[in-house]
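So, can you check this record?

>
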Amino acid sequence: MALLALGVLAGPELAGQLSARETGHGTYNNGTAWATNTDRGGRFPFDGRLRADATAWRGRVGVNASYSYGSANAQAGLVGGPVREAYVRTLRWGVAYRLR
């Protein structure tokens, strides 16, 4: 058995959106209060992402890290304010176990 084996993967990933909600509150510079609780679902139900993953294995147990970068702009179609872009960027850490 090798002391440590490294597995590396890169490629596409398709993610589905379960829910998206914008919530917040605050005050403008003149002291006027504002609040929002708006459903943002349905604008981008699927997100195609690029993903890279690395796993260090010792026997059947591994420690992994992955990073994915989304292609769907979460702020597309919003009304008001400056035009902005917001894409999902996800960093994952975890533990893995091989069944076979």
Summary: The radius of gyration is 20 Å.
